[in-house]
């Protein structure tokens, strides 16, 4: 009996240790899952793992596309007021959001469906990179860099006042590998498609916007710490008109 007892002790400790390890692993997994959970309530953003899940965009608006076209104007006077997470979600979806879950087509047309564009968002909460397929924002910086972006745009101060600015960047190689030099034109055209969607969506939300093309490429790239192949080609401030 004594020998049996001695024989069973290692087995007992092995079972207890294994169960304890399993519980710890399970608890760790649960904690990890909880840590990456994102909550969006009353327009507030709860950060975890530098990702934000954006609210589901609406597919119906309050005014017609014709009315949005008629109302659209370049706005350069903004109130210093943040946009809601719902407004940001809607604007980004209109720019590059997925509109066909099966084929992964996006809101703006792209030559060969190659999608060479990357969008960066600047607001009071920091700098973010838009991830279209998951409709999420990836945090790049915690700093409000809108004033610095304004400086990189040769002192166009309304950029610092607007609730957000969207920097449209092109990765030309995604298109030119197939279409050669002609692909450069296709990419530039695509930036225009995206910009118009943003402008019309802004009108639909009761906001104003303006296209900005005058800026220092190098200053913007350095400010946002962009990858080498990300070329900024368009900046669009969006916000509440002051008048």
How does this model look, in words?
This protein is of the alpha+beta class and 243 residues long. It folds into 2 domains: 1-35; 41-239, NADH Oxidase (3-Layer(aba) Sandwich), CATH 3.40.109. The chain is built from 8 helices and 11 strands. The strands form 3 sheets. The chain has a 7-stranded antiparallel sheet, sandwiched between helices. A two-stranded antiparallel ribbon has the order 1-2. Strands 4-5 form a two-stranded antiparallel ribbon. Strand 6 (117-123) and strand 7 (126-131) form a beta hairpin. The radius of gyration is 24 Å and the shape is globular. The N and C termini lie far apart (92 Å).
Helix content: 40-55%
What string gives the helices and strands in order? HEEEHHEEEEEHHEHHEHE
Largest sheet: 7 strands, antiparallel
Note poorly predicted spans.
1-48
Give the CATH superfamily of the largest domain. Answer: NADH Oxidase
How are the SSEs ordered, and which strands pair?
Blueprint: H1 2-35, E1 40-41, E2 44-45, E3 51-53, H2 65-71, H3 85-96, E4 98-100, E5 105-106, E6 117-123, E7 126-131, E8 136-141, H4 146-152, H5 158-161, E9 164-170, H6 173-179, H7 182-204, E10 208-209, H8 217-224, E11 231-239
């Amino acid at each position: 009996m004594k020998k049996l007892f001695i024989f069973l002790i290692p087995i007992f400790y092995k079972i207890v240790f294994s169960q304890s390890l399993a519980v710890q692993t399970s608890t760790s997994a649960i904690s990890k899952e909880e840590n990456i959970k994102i909550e969006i309530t009353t327009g507030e953003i709860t950060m975890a793992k530098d990702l934000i899940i954006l609210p589901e965009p609406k597919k119906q608006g309050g005014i017609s596309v014709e009315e949005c076209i008629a109302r659209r104007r370049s706005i350069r006077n903004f109130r210093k007021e943040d946009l809601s997470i719902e407004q940001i979600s809607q604007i980004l979806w209109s720019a590059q959001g997925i509109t066909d879950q099966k084929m992964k087509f996006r809101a703006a047309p792209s030559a060969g469906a190659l999608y060479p564009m990357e969008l960066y968002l600047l607001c009071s909460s920091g700098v973010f990179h838009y991830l279209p397929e998951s409709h999420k924002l990836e945090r790049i910086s915690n700093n409000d860099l809108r004033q610095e972006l304004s400086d990189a745009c040769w002192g166009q101060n309304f950029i610092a006042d607007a609730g957000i600015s969207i920097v449209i960047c092109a990765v030309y190689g995604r298109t030119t590998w197939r279409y050669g030099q002609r692909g450069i034109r296709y990419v530039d055209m695509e930036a225009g498609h995206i910009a118009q969607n943003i402008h019309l969506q802004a009108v639909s939300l009761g906001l104003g916007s303006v296209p900005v093309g005058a800026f220092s490429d190098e200053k913007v790239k350095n400010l946002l710490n962009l990858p080498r192949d990300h070329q900024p080609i368009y900046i669009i401030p969006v916000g509440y008109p002051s008048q």
